[in-house]
Design brief:
two-stranded antiparallel ribbon; Rossmann fold
Amino acid sequence: MNGIFERTELLLGTEAIKRLSQKKVIVFGVGGVGSWCAESLVRSGICNLTIVDSDCVCASNINRQLMATVSSLNKPKVKVLHQRLLDINPKAEITALQKVYCEQTAADFNLDKYDYIIDAIDSLKDKALLILSACKTTAVLFSSMGAALKTDPLRIKVAEFWKVEGDPLARALRKRFKSQGQYPNKKFFCVFSDELPHAAIQSNDDGSRVNGTVMHVTASFGLVLASLVIKDVC
């Protein structure tokens, strides 16, 4: 195992590598954003990581999700990613949970035991619930806003949630919090893009909306999320 983190240690220092190895991180959603965040965390020295996602790999994931390949089709995303992360660092403690975070399952997660909580959830309702719950803990929360319908990674920014501008998902979350009279009880930072959304949307037969996405934006969101954790630890 000697040498895996040699280049990182050279840049960040021995003490930083030690601190990174001691932190507990959970990533909710390992799609186009969360999968890249998870890998970046492990490659940077995070040794205790929990990944949460209920979905299986499908063909439409291949254009942007880290573990999505033809050979991984129909396999649970967290299981495929779990194996990949252990191939990077076999000594890491990687927990893969194939489930969704929602009202019915929220009690199953002991969020207080984590140092960092990463929100890469797509569902507005579940995302809002996670944010409210995470902000009640001592963990540091970093949240991804909307990466779909964007093509320019140079427009990606970081801001405190209430200062995010030009992002429809952040706007929808704020509206939801206000309508319910429930607000996050501490500040948290978000990764977002102020690029105007492109009209690349279609509807499935069941009426659900599908947004156009590209890897160079979604992956960049994930890498920036990971960088926020690394920077905060260091």
